[in-house]
From TrEMBL:
The keyword Cytoplasm applies. Responsible for the release of ribosomes from messenger RNA at the termination of protein biosynthesis. May increase the efficiency of translation by recycling ribosomes from one round of translation to another. CDD domains: RRF. Residues 23-185 form the Ribosome recycling factor domain. This is Ribosome-recycling factor. GO terms for biological process: cytoplasmic translational termination.
């Protein structure tokens, strides 16, 4: 029975990739002084009785480097979209022009850059915690197989593989954080 143990490393890696993709999405939502349509991804609008992503109630465009526009499809939702953007914590003051909401992206001051750097750090730490939890899941599976009669050599081999995978993802999280913080601090 012990020879049959196979840790599903593909599943573990897929789940770790998911944690990295989530981190990239969170990083994309942080504004760096340049306009980006992805910065509105986390904004949810109370539309038609449920919370809806902003890109499902209008078209998000970036017509120039310091401007994002949202062309709201339903005229009745313009006020709700504006309110959702205002309350999102992005620090952007929306301006109405009919069904188009214009979002001028102001220059970031030094204090705001530092705050965003800390937010990026907390996003990275959450990703690290997710990776460590996945590592623990893998190690638990190995311990269970050890209790079922797996040899110590096999146990060590699998533990090393899981740890190696964990280290690789933690390193890529750290690299992504460093890149994002440099981007945020760039004037």
């Amino acid at each position: 029975m012990s020879d049959d143990f196979m840790l599903d490393t593909d599943d573990l890696e897929r789940r770790m990739d998911g944690a990295m993709a989530n981190l990239r999405t969170e990083f994309a939502s942080l504004r760096t002084g340049r306009a980006s349509a992805s910065m509105l991804e986390p904004v949810m609008v109370d539309a038609y009785g449920s919370m809806t992503p902003i890109n499902q109630v209008g078209t998000v465009n970036v017509p120039e480097p310091r401007m994002v526009t949202v062309n709201v499809w339903d005229k009745g939702l313009v006020g709700k979209v504006e309110k959702a953007i205002r309350e999102s914590g992005l620090g952007i003051n929306p301006q109405l022009n009919g069904t188009i909401i214009m979002l001028p992206i102001p220059e970031l001051n030094e204090e705001r850059r530092r705050e965003l750097g800390k937010v990026a750090g907390s996003y990275a730490e959450n990703a690290r915690v997710s990776i460590r939890n996945l590592r623990r899941d893998g190690m638990d599976q190995i311990k269970k197989a050890k209790a079922d009669g797996m040899s110590e050599d096999d146990e060590k081999l699998w533990q090393d593989e899981v740890q190696e995978m964990t280290d690789k993802y933690i390193k890529s999280i750290d690299a992504a954080l460093e890149t994002k913080q440099a981007e945020i601090m760039q004037v």
